[in-house]
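User: For documentation purposes, I need each entry recorded in a consistent format: the amino acid sequence on its own, followed directly by the corresponding structure tokens. There are two entries in this batch. Please keep commentary to a minimum and don't merge the entries.

Assistant: Recorded as requested. Entry 1:
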Amino acid sequence: MDSLLQRQRLDRIVASYALAGEAEDLFSERLQQLLQAYPSALIEWALVEVLAQNWLRYPLPRGLAFITQVEVKLQQWQTSIDASIAITPSQFEHVTGLSVDSSALIVAEQDWQFLDTRSLSDGLSDHSDPAN
């Protein structure tokens, strides 16, 4: 996926929930820094997972508080052998209105051996059987 499309996908998620808050320029700068350090597909998943974790909080964290939580989530996935992605592909699509870029996730999974490969593989196949 080209970098313009990747950035548009991220911008759609951020704009849909006004995640940048009042400090849009600082938020955008931090997001750009994350893009230089992490695959965009993982940043998308981190945005959605942090959004889901904060959904019942009022007010919803936005701006630098939100992007800092995204960065922490990415670092947890990078450093923890037990890291896993809790959001399923169908939940991701429901929250973002975007299709899952499973090819980018597979590439990210191959590049990032620290991720729990079961979480990505199981999520990508989107099993309906709760035993899987």
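Entry 2:
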Amino acid sequence: MKRGSMICGGAFVRLGKQLLQKPGTFAPKHLDGSFLGALIGATFIIFINSGISSEYKKYWTYGISALVSLFASGVALTGVLASISNQNRKFFEERVASHKAAKALLPIALSRFHEVSENATSIALRDDTFFENSENVSTIAEAVEIGDETIRVLKECIEYSDEVTQEWLSIAFARYQVARSRLISSVADPHRVVTDLTRGDHAFDWEVIRAIVSHLFSFARGHEGVPSSQIDPETVTMSMLHPEVGKPRYTAAQQRIIERRKLLSDGSLKDFRENI
């Protein structure tokens, strides 16, 4: 019996150490685990060596041994749960940091999108000679390339932002990919005939992107918490400061834009996503 009581006492010492070493447990940091375990173990040994009948001592020893195992398992589980909690907190902090970093760079990314849209609209208004020369493919590709860094920032903002911002950025990026392909194909394919109607369609594609980008600038600069889920359809238009303003190709393209933007109805996210 004495040997059993010493074993159980030793188990309490080990348990005390575990209680104070596991992260997230309730024990004070300054308390020594060995001392706590020894104190509990000594109490247990005194009880075993007291005048209580051997039958009670035997069952009590078995019971307390089982409790030691249960306590040890509980301590281990507490450590696992604390570790999971720490990992979740670290993931959340990294997510917030990534979002802040991406949002800080979002104005630069949007500026590049805006610049590319203006370049593309100007290309759409070029004369037939430009579109008939397949060597201009590289010129167009370079003028409408947003770059890997801009794409990275957009992807991170889409991943971590609120739902409305995610929707607008997703629409703009998807529209960009389609518009870029269409514009390059107009020169790359010698069998395509470019008319004022197709020029207007190209200009519309890029002015939609420019309108979305302009809409998000205030949010990107921190002036509003969440961007509005609506855009005034009349903002989808070519600039009155465009070098071609007043000329036939500009006028025809602008008319086409006005016709197509009617599909945007009240300019909701759904209209921009599904109706154009």
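Summary note for entry 2:
The first helix runs from residue 2 to 21.
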